[in-house]
Design a protein that fits this description.
single chain, alpha+beta, Protein Transport Mog1p, Chain A, 2 domains, seven-stranded antiparallel beta sheet, 7 strands, disordered N terminus
Length: 194
């Protein structure tokens, strides 16, 4: 009888140890570990978000020719690549919608008022085309900066339920062939509107 009682307590002790170890391993991270949060979750970009943004187009825009700068802020990462001799610019944003987004968020962010803000540094802008496929939209614009005519392509890629990748390419009007080439490399599924 004494031996059965001993076995029971040893088995109970080991079971308790296993439960404690499982609880410790599967414990959820504290709010401190997740960083600042809003009503739907963490809004600071993750390391994966930053890495994905920096890698986007990195093999296409050679570091010696294109000067890169970027910022990481709540809800977004912004990346700019400039090629001053070619008077060309690539601008990438990786946007975080912690609560997700729907058509109304897309319409307000990428509607007339949104583009008014996006192109506010240019003398003028005019939409020339618009097209879309499953989760990728392309807006094409003619711009004028300091009297110089420019071409812009502005892609909006729905990357996940909470992430949107935005990419804008701006080149001189005379560099349409370069714009077409970069566009095919960046978005082969929708390099330009038909």
């Amino acid at each position: 009888m004494h031996r059965q009682h001993y076995r029971f307590w040893v088995a109970l002790f080991f079971a308790a140890c296993v439960l404690v170890m499982l609880a410790a391993c599967s414990g959820s991270p504290s709010a401190e570990d997740a960083g600042p949060v809003d009503d739907c979750g963490p809004y600071e970009p993750t390391e994966q978000d930053v890495e994905k943004t920096l890698e986007f187009g990195a093999k296409i825009f050679a570091p010696g020719e294109w000067i890169r700068s970027y910022t990481v802020e709540p809800y977004k990462i912004s990346l700019t690549r400039r090629n001053d001799p070619q008077k060309s610019l690539e601008y990438v944003e990786y946007l975080i919608f912690t609560c997700g987004y729907g058509q109304s968020e897309l319409d307000s962010y990428f509607g007339d008022e949104g583009f008014k803000v996006i192109f506010s540094d240019y003398e003028s802008y005019a939409a020339t085309n618009f097209c879309e496929i499953t989760s990728l939209t392309l807006y094409e614009y003619d711009l004028v900066d300091e009297g110089n005519p420019l071409l812009a392509r502005y892609w909006v890629k729905q990357d996940s339920d909470t992430r949107i990748l935005v990419n804008m390419l701006v080149v001189p009007e005379t560099a349409r062939a370069s714009l077409d080439d970069y566009s095919r490399q960046l978005f082969p599924e929708l390099p330009a509107c038909p």
